[in-house]
Request: fold
Amino acid sequence: MPTFPNDFLWGAASAPHQVEGNNVNSDFWAQEARMTGADRSGDALDSYNRYPEDIALVAESGLDTYRFGIEWARIEPAPGVFSRVELAHYRRMIDAALEAGVRPFVTLHHFTSPRWFAEAGGWEAPQAIDRFRAYVEVAASILDGVEWVCTINEPNILAIMIREAEVALDPDSGVEWLSPTLEADTPRPIKPAPPVEIGRRLIEAHHAAREILRARTTAKVGWSIANRAFETRPGAEEVRRRLEYVWEDLYLEAAAEDDYVGVQAYSAQWVGLDGIEPHPVRPDNTLVRTAYRPDALGIAVRHTADVLPDVPVVVTENGIATDDDTRRVAYTEAALDSLAQAMADGVDVRGYIHWSLLDNYEWGHWDPTFGLVAVDRETFERRPKPSLAWLGSFARNEREGGGEG
Reply:
């Protein structure tokens, strides 16, 4: 019998800095040039110019939703200077999706900020919220017809990235950059938890953006949280609760009045009496060194529903870093099974968006491949993998035979 309702969202995702290329006014572009051990994004996948191809891949596969971002650093290249050309560019992306029968699911901030914003103190500066508010007010002008908007992607990971970049950019630290989206084989040089003081600023920014978007658009507004899918060793329940608050619940609780909350889960981690246990080095770990745990998605949405029982869930990211596409299909099928089981138990889930559409730049690293589509970085030719056809077919079958929404 069909598992998912026929109005369920089925999609794939990207982020502007990771796919567009030459985002020269962004803070991360500047950091790439200075951080030891970081690859450069460069032309990335040229999606700034080739977005029609990307949208066509989504539409032709059988998926019906494309989550993509608009880039603050392009829209506001200098304080208070807003580019009509860039606003028109992103409006064309939205229109291209709508014309292809694909829902645009638009993210306003996906880890990157204008370089001038970072140089003025970034999210910890007194004027940060007002600066973000001004950007959102302008961005709202191009969101007509957009049903879903994410204000800030993974604020808990963004908070870590800000602190770890400070270490990697210090010439005296001797520390090579490692994206927080990857696991280290050895302990990190700073405490690997989101700094609460930055987290609270991001919450303030989210609430400010939500207010503007509700006044100026008809979109459903929320944000997305990176979920650790913690599991607990005997006797470590209180340790897990403390860690869960810093890692997730602070941000989940901030979404209590949102229209939805985005769940982003890839793997699970055990918590013991000494804290989060590192993943053992195993041959079946993913390319970002996490454990192969497709059941993490079910764990994550259940925990989210425990914290926010009245807020619908959208899986805004889920996937696996692997160079074996057969394994990608197996992982996704198992993850969707765990999601379906959670939904059968009463969790209100409205959609599943796979990370990622394309093999993209992973915040300083090109090696991990998450995509449903491979890309030749010399010619930018898109090469769909069997997993794209599989997921699109799965979505089409559920949409055509699914239950009532």
About this structure: The chain has one domain: 9-397.
